[in-house]
Design a protein that fits this description.
The chain has 352 residues and is of the alpha/beta class. The protein contains 10 helices and 19 strands. The protein has 2 domains: 142 residues, Carbamoyl-phosphate synthase small subunit, N-terminal domain (Glucose Oxidase, domain 1, 3-Layer(bba) Sandwich), CATH 3.50.30; 197 residues, Rossmann fold (3-Layer(aba) Sandwich), CATH 3.40.50.
Length: 352
């Protein structure tokens, strides 16, 4: 099938479509990971985005359902250099896209597109599969609303009702903004007693489970849209230990009166280096387009992690308020697990 990817700047590329005929649109972002493509595609944090893989070959081990991070693919579209037609396992990624009525494009210069995003920043795009009319694709791209405080994606990926994952250990309340499966697995591996709540859960609703700690998860879009979660976190500050991962890091910063901002093209991949305040360097999995402005955090907060490439805030803590948040994904599935033990064991040591 023919396919065309159009951009808001009147540019476009053509290639071979896979999946089904139709269209999708969103912000075009790139990930530098070399494995774990299904983990990325099923990460709810990619909701609202078309995902470009910089690694040239995709689908070489088929579709690994066991490692899905949610029940479905959340990326609106997929852009690859080459789609493997003889994988080590089945089903083929192209067949899965067709069965699930998803849209992708292959046979394009992904290196050129990555350079375009790095130079110009995240760009709005539209993918047409089954036809190659660039004018239509460009017009669609220009109509895509940018991911901002006016675009609330979180309610679509959050759980609708609370649920309980019983354990014999620490009782942790989790605000689900689009949580990845492996974050829950990392907690359950430590026998945590988990109570998971929707993004709009109130302080009173969460307090009913008598939690020993509060965890705010990852999620898509601009953290400023999560007004309910920000308010709930504010009400828990000083009551119990608070931990945040990815968007949870940003939500907690906003709850403390800090500010966040949209990055030029974000951090996405499994090879992002971070520097711990004590000097250690970790390689981490990340997926975010917004970051915390460290200069706006309260005086009793310390920036505990920074990105070794660009110096952006990768986490902060407050000993007085018993808060410890990270921007990266410590469960790191499927990427390097340098921080899985480092962060999750730290959480459990700090819960009374």
């Amino acid at each position: 099938m023919k396919a065309v990817l159009g951009f808001e700047d009147n540019d476009f590329i053509t290639g071979e479509g896979f999946g089904v005929s139709g269209s999708c649109a969103g912000e075009l972002v790139f990930t530098t990971q070399m494995t774990g493509y299904m983990e990325a595609l099923t990460d709810p944090s990619y909701h609202g985005q078309i995902l470009l893989f910089t690694y040239p070959l995709l689908g070489n081990y088929g579709v690994d359902f066991h490692n899905f991070q949610s029940s479905r693919v959340w990326a609106r579209g997929c852009v690859v250099r080459e789609l493997c037609q003889a994988p080590a396992a089945i089903p083929l990624l192209g067949d899965y896209f067709r069965e699930e009525r998803l849209h992708g494009i292959t046979g394009v210069d992904t290196r050129k597109l990555t350079i375009k995003i790095r130079e110009k920043g995240t760009i709005r795009a539209a993918l047409l599969v089954g036809e190659a009319n660039p004018d239509v694709a460009i017009e669609m791209a220009q109509q895509v609303p940018p991911i901002s405080s006016q675009t609330d994606l979180i309610p679509q990926v959050s759980c609708k009702t609370p649920y309980h994952l019983p354990g014999r250990g620490k009782r942790i309340a989790v605000i689900d903004l689009g949580i990845k499966k492996n974050m829950l697995i990392s907690l359950r591996n430590r026998d945590a007693d988990l109570f998971i709540y929707p993004c709009n859960a109130t302080h009173r609703e969460i307090q009913a489970c008598e939690p020993q700690a509060l965890l705010i998860s990852n999620g898509p879009g601009d953290p400023e849209t999560a007004k309910d979660a920000i308010r709930t976190v504010q009400e828990f500050i000083g009551e119990i230990p608070i931990f945040g991962i990815c968007m949870g890091n940003q939500i907690t910063a906003l709850a403390l009166g800090g500010r966040t901002y949209k990055m030029k093209f974000g951090h996405r991949g499994t090879n992002q280096p971070i520097r711990f305040i004590e000097g250690a360097i970790f390689i981490t999995t990340q997926n975010h387009g917004f970051a915390v402005d460290g200069d706006t955090l309260p005086e009793d907060c310390t920036v505990s992690y920074t990105n070794a490439n660009d110096g952006t805030v990768e986490g902060f803590m407050s000993s007085d308020l018993d808060i410890s948040c990270v921007q990266f994904h410590p469960e790191a599935h499927g990427g390097p697990r340098d921080t899985e033990i480092h962060y999750f064991d730290m959480i459990f040591r700090r819960i009374p």
